[in-house]
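New to this. Please check this fold:
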Amino acid sequence: MKTSINFPDELRGVFAVPPLCRANCVSRALDFRQNRLVVEHIRAGGITRLIYGGNAFLYHVTLDEYALLLDWLAQLPGDLWVIPSIGPGFGRAFEQARLIHAFHFPCVMVLPCNDPRDAVGLEAGYREIAEAAAAKLLLYIKDENSFGADKQLGLDAVGRLVADGVCIGIKYAVVRGNPAEDDYLDGLLQRVDRAFVISGIGERPAVTHLRDWKLSGFTTGSGCVAPHLSQALFVACERGDFDHAEELRSQFMALEDLRDAWGPARVLHAALAEAQIAQTGRIPPFVSGLDDEQLQTLSPVARELLLADVSAAERAATLIVP
């Protein structure tokens, strides 16, 4: 994995957020052979930024599993920028930060906390966590109360963390009916250079966030199934071909609709298995797997997206001049 990143320039791109494969048995042990298949599939599609967070159910990982995961992530190929997540609570995050300190991850993502919190307390805690981990932070803003009930104080705290170099990026994931209209995002960008902000809700708002808000990049879950298409969407936005970007985006919507309906992480976990990319195994508590009826609905959607991705890769290959 990469151990040195040029911030914020290298935030420009696609960040895959993959699931974490486990054995399909009572132990639910981490299966790194299957996880390697997922990484190789994503990497073959041109995506070299990986965030292990919500889709990997790191909210519920044990410390022993977390130590094994860090060791495996640190051994991934040198062209990959790998970002593990910590938290969401302070105690757990601080314990994980001590484990991270033994490695050389350029940054870690802090999972959003729903426990008692306020802007001043979060800012102080995040500074302690960054120091303990010897790493920069990628902040995950999932709703307007992520930094406490006082939205303006929260945004001020985020601004200070970026200005002081504690935070090197923000995953912005506040869901809007119309992502072009977002007063909270506007307030964030008044305090933080947009070069530090990536869209954090997959392909659904990605084109709007890159075109209208000029954010640096976007995260993708469904891009773990179709990395060529997700990367092509970003490239189309970069060159200003937003009509083509919208065409590419539309190919993700069937899977994104199921993820929104049944739970983004649990659907993605099953989708990679249904597309036969890897055997993702059993989901750990407190989340349940999809039932048989849901799997029957998901399977053709996941396979169709994978086939579209393979076709896109083949078309791109014919354009390469020997």
About this structure: The CA atoms of residues 34 and 278 lie 6 Å apart. The first strand starts at residue 14 and ends at 16. The chain has one domain: 9-314. The chain has a mean pLDDT of 97.
